[in-house]
Specification:
With 752 residues, this protein is an alpha+beta fold. 51% of the residues lie in helices and 15% in strands. Helix 1 runs parallel beside helix 4.
Length: 752
């Protein structure tokens, strides 16, 4: 169940009793100084008296004073410092433009002002994530705000914790408002702030945000589970009392000092388990649950033995998160047993330190408690490292459209750890390259990079690094970033941070130079892939730009990726080829061609339904790999849109009943046989190396023809391979070009 809001204490006159409220804070932050905290509270009280909030705000504990006091209480519960508590009290008044930030800094100091500014800037990411338009990359002010927010968070993690407290207060208070506002806030909280709370390990905030979001997003499911829990509450409480008494006796007999108490299961986790495992409510084991806190890790396993000797355990319901912690650092033993009366009960076993970390996460290691005695841990450092990865969002925002999904993806990202020449450890994403490493060290190191040594050996700049490698960057005084680094086919860059730095460097060059460089790059790639017959304006229209000069300028500056243009060219050629095929083939063969052309539509699977007519929307032109959504039209079957298409987002609001879940079935829409020509200096094993590259990329080879030229010592190879797109062909050719002795690998077209 969700946490119930505690009403603020009131005086006999009906006003909030600030003295009693302050006393409630001292139990969490004993070293708190009364005067500055009370001064902040009285200041906001004065503001509300002079400029009262609307009655509906006051009625739902949503005015500046009520929200400020409640937010401060949450911050105190997280054991943050005095500055954080004062910032929490004042934040809502600043947010509603009742207290200018400059005046706040004058009255309460720059430190508190900096915290409030940081929380203010976090509104940028919420606004961007909930917007119907893709503001990232288009609205530069918005991008700068997001960047400022990220920097603020990295600079001081208290900013993020304050924001979590503020969103918790907001979703608690929204109960009395209209359904549209409730759902909008619930979606924002669930998509953005629940994963943040989870990754920081702030369990008590995460669970409350999950339950409250679920309450508004799935009201029927929420109420159904809540009723079932209420119906069984007394029976469950009596049963838990019986279990805890037996456990206390057994733990006393084993000589282990333990705290034992019942644990409430929050509603969203019950629903999630029911959905994930296809279970009925009666099959959820941990609705009846107890938690045991013991002094040491050894005591945890001793207690586990006591529990399993007392009751029969269920084999598939045991998890050892002490030996194998969760990605957010959570540690505990979980087991389910058949307890008294033959009922299933879940038992969680952990130390007091583990419990503190599970509830408060990063706050359990708080550095501001006592800088001289603060305890840092690997878990704490990993959480801060995760926050630092957020800086990589900045570049990728233009193409994401769904920052929530990107945020959640960080939980699954694998990391490697490499050494600098000075033996400093650098954490990078899996498959990072020396270029990624260089830009991680410093922007100027990356910009001047001309080569790299890994473990004392010179390697290509797209060499994938491994944990334990010692990396040295070779720099040149006149070296500069290469545009090849932005070519995804060549895989020089694997991190958004490095890509952003390279793009930034090229954006600083003048437009004329960017146009020239972009034109050369595009012509070189089109020549290599033998792409002809595409009108320049046609290509510009396909990527929603006004002219081919704009295409070249954006490509030269890094705003547009080469793979995007190859995909656009692919779509143009597909349409052209299809029209030509229909015009030239005999009637019977044309029907077959039409059938083959519909394979792309057959690649879409409609969940729970089969054999429905589908068509791809012309407004957003989805391609395999895009996140997609279906809309049931009148008479034209199901229209398939990209999930971030503005039209489908509007239809979801206006006609939600006609939205249907769809996905790519995994069936390949079309395969193209392509001839490639490879010129190389002849050597032993050359053909083997080429076929190894093709096999590694799962490329099917239809035919091979090789010719050696003894007089020049060269060899010419012509291979027929099967690919699905220009982008895939480009990546294959790029990898072959990187092989030793290869002069050139390109697409071959017979002369007309």
């Amino acid at each position: 169940m969700v946490k119930v809001r505690d009403d603020h204490p009131v005086t006999a006159e009906g006003e909030i009793d600030l003295q009693s409220w302050y006393s409630g804070l001292e139990q969490f932050v004993p070293q708190l100084a009364r005067e500055p905290v009370m001064r902040a509270a009285r200041r906001v009280q004065q503001i509300e008296q002079l400029d009262p909030s609307p009655p509906e705000y006051r009625a739902h504990n949503y005015d500046c004073l009520q929200m400020g006091l409640e937010m401060a209480r949450l911050v105190a519960e997280m054991h943050l410092d005095q500055d954080s508590i004062i910032a929490a009290i004042l934040y809502r008044a600043v947010r509603r433009d009742k207290l200018p930030i400059a005046q706040l800094e004058q009255e309460f100091g720059d430190k508190i002002g900096k915290l409030v500014r940081g929380v203010q800037s976090m509104a940028a990411i919420s606004a961007a994530a909930t917007s119907n338009d893709t503001v990232f990359g288009k609205n530069q002010d918005q991008v700068r705000n997001v960047r400022a927010m990220l920097v603020a968070v990295i600079d001081d993690v208290r900013v993020l914790l304050l924001k979590l407290a503020e969103r918790t207060c907001a979703i608690r208070a929204v109960k009395g408002f209209d359904a549209a506002r409730q759902q909008r806030l619930a979606r924002e909280v669930f998509d953005l702030y629940v994963p943040m709370a989870h990754r920081l390990g702030v369990g008590h905030i995460e669970w409350e945000l999950e339950d409250l979001s679920f309450r508004y997003l799935e009201p029927e499911a929420y109420q159904s589970i809540a009723r079932l829990l209420d119906e069984r509450r007394r029976d469950r409480d009596d049963y838990i009392q019986l279990v805890t008494e037996q456990l206390r006796q057994e733990m006393h007999n084993a000589g282990v000092a333990a705290q034992i108490y019942g644990r409430s299961k929050h509603i969203y986790s019950i629903w999630r388990k029911m959905q994930k495992k296809g279970l009925d409510f009666s099959q959820i084991f941990d609705v009846r649950a107890v938690r045991i806190l013991v002094p040491t890790v050894r005591d945890c396993y001793t207690t586990l033995g006591v529990v399993h000797s007392l009751w029969k355990h269920i084999p598939n319901e045991f998890d050892d998160y002490i030996a194998n912690p969760k990605e957010n650092g959570y540690r505990s033993l979980h087991t389910a047993v058949i307890g008294p009366q033959g009922r299933v009960v879940e038992v969680q076993i952990r130390t007091e330190e583990m419990h503190e970390e599970a509830e408060y996460g990063v706050c359990a290691h708080w550095l501001y408690k006592d800088p001289g005695k603060a305890r840092k841990s690997k878990d704490y450092e990993e959480k801060i490292a995760w926050l630092q990865q957020a800086l990589e969002w900045h570049e990728e925002m233009g193409g994401l459209g769904n920052i929530a999904e990107h945020l959640r993806s960080y939980e699954r990202q694998e990391r490697i750890y490499v050494f600098t020449p000075d033996d400093h450890v650098v954490s990078l994403p899996h498959n990072a390259t020396p270029v990624d490493f260089a830009y991680h060290v410093h922007t100027e190191v990356g910009n001047s990079c001309r080569g790299a040594k890994v473990n004392g050996r010179i390697v290509p700049l797209n060499h994938p690094l491994q944990t334990g490698d010692r990396v040295e960057i070779l720099r040149g005084p006149h070296s500069r970033p290469s545009r090849d680094w932005l070519n995804s086919s060549l895989q020089y860059i694997r991190t958004a941070r490095a890509r952003a730095k390279v793009q930034q460097w090229f954006r600083q060059q003048n437009r004329e130079q960017n146009i020239l460089d972009g034109r050369n790059l595009l012509e070189k790639e089109f020549q290599r892939l033998a792409i002809t017959g595409i009108e320049p304006q046609q290509l510009a229209d396909e990527v929603n730009l006004k002219s081919i000069d704009d295409v070249h300028a954006d490509l030269g500056s890094g705003r547009l990726r080469l793979s995007q243009l190859l995909n656009a060219a692919q779509r143009i050629e597909n349409r052209t080829a299809q029209r030509a095929q229909m015009e030239l083939l005999p009637t019977t063969l044309a029907r077959a061609a039409r059938s083959e052309a519909t394979l792309a539509k057959d690649a879409v699977a409609i969940q729970g339904v089969g054999n429905l007519l589908t068509q791809f929307a012309s407004c957003c032109k989805p391609v395999p790999g895009d996140a997609i959504t279906g809309f049931i039209t009148r008479g034209r079957g199901v229209s398939i849109h990209r999930a971030d298409c503005n039209n489908i987002l509007q239809l979801e609001d206006n006609e939600p009943g006609r939205i249907i879940a769809v996905d790519w079935s995994g069936r390949t829409a079309q395969i193209y046989p392509v001839d490639i020509l490879i010129e190389a200096y002849d050597r032993s094993g050359l053909l083997r190396d080429i076929t190894t590259v093709l096999a590694r990329d799962s490329i099917n080879v239809i035919a091979v023809n090789t010719l050696s030229h003894k007089e020049s010592g060269t060899a010419t190879m012509r291979l027929t391979i099967e690919v699905t797109s220009f982008d895939e062909l480009g990546k294959v050719l790029a990898r072959i070009n990187q092989l030793s002795n290869v002069i050139e690998a390109r697409r071959f077209t017979a002369p007309v």
